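Dear support,

I submitted the protein below through the web form. The confirmation email said the job was done, but the results page showed an empty box. After a refresh the structure appeared. I'm attaching both so you can tell me whether what I see now is the final result or a partial one.
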Amino acid sequence: MTDYYDAFEVSPVPVPGPDVVAPELFRGIYGMPSFVTAPSADLEASIGFWTGGLGFFVLFSVPGRLVHLRRWMFQDVLLVPADPTSAAPAPSAAATSTVSFAGLLGQIDELAEACRTIDADSVVAVRDTPWNTRDLEVRTPEGLRVVVTAAKPFDPAGEAAAGLAAIGITPPGEGGRTRGRRENREHVR
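What the results page shows now:
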């Protein structure tokens, strides 16, 4: 994995750092490149958890049929009523799907506390990963496993850098090619 380049300009996620500021909640309309659809047995409970616990907002809704939630750009969730004839997983049951959203280090503890305030059993874990993130894992009222993952500032001399290098992932400028968008012609149509 050495043929990559810095493409932060196409993402709303800021480069990790000690004073980084979260992007504003994004209220624009765009063609969604991807989104999550979560069937809910209780739309109001689901809306309350996602907005009060995870920091999403209701972009729009079609009463009784659909609630479009959003946080940052490209973080879209569609809540739909669960089919009453199908067995929806109980929130305490094992998650059947996982979705991850980017967050910031300064948000992880705050989001965990907000989720616990709504549902004391919703937070599964807050943990640091070998790939240099801190992750919050929660279980939503729909039984969905949600991971909010926050990149930590990269220390080229740190343990995470050594672990990544051991599996062939080197940071730009250190054995990997550092190429900007303009230099990446072979991937442009």
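Response: this is the final, complete result; the empty box was a page-load delay. The longest helix spans residues 105-118.
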